[in-house]
Amino acid sequence: MKLKLHHINLCSTNVKAMDRFYRDVLTLGDEKPSELPPLNQDKSLVGDVSFVTDGAIQMHLTPKDVLNSFKSGQVVNPLERGHIAYRTDDIEAFMKHLDEQAVPYSDWGSDAVKGWHQVFFYDPDGNVIEVHQIVNK
């Protein structure tokens, strides 16, 4: 069995702000309508969702709803935080883009991973995002 990352789901108290962030700061775009999951609106389990993509991986931005497990009858206990990682071919240009967007970040250089230049920053809900470039091949 082969697995490939398909999407990342982030919950938010402000889906519109998250949508703007991922579109404006990370320059993600719209997914083809045929590739979107058919949501079951009859059960009101999800609410208004925003879908953005880098062309390969989808992000599903959903409203926070701590009572959703009662509605669905399913109980899930995910990790509270983690990070999302993206790879770039020009970390300097990306850091300039973050500066232009007034997004503060930590430039770890290659301190954590040898051969990767990493920067870390937060989205509007405090989720950690990493962007890195392979600098030693």
From TrEMBL:
InterPro entries from the UniProt entry: Glyas_Bleomycin-R_OHBP_Dase, Glyas_Fos-R_dOase_dom, VOC_core
Species: Planktomarina temperata RCA23
Pfam families registered for this protein in UniProt: Glyoxalase
Protein name, as recorded: VOC domain-containing protein
VOC domain: residues covered: 4-134
